[in-house]
Task: structure prediction
Amino acid sequence: MPNLQNAKKALRQSDKRAQRNKTVKAEIHSLRVKIRKALTAKKVDEALEIARLVGKKLDKAAQKNVFKKNTVARYKSRIMKKINDLKKA
Result:
């Protein structure tokens, strides 16, 4: 446990930020699972709609430094690649 007042405040801030980041990551994870399920069920329209939502959430998370920029780009790229492959098939 921190002894100094500023260290105590830093710990409180860190805990708050970690909790906020955790909820954002959990929400994005659940949406990515929904996309995978839609893709396995071959529901392209539904997957595309969810992908747009995930893209927005990922961009916002990158903006808030929850995810790194390249991580977001990689996630979005993989999602769109799978959707485009399903469209072609």
About this structure: The chain has one domain: 5-88. DSSP finds three helices and no strands in the chain. Helices lie at 5-40, 44-63, 69-88. The chain has a mean pLDDT of 96.
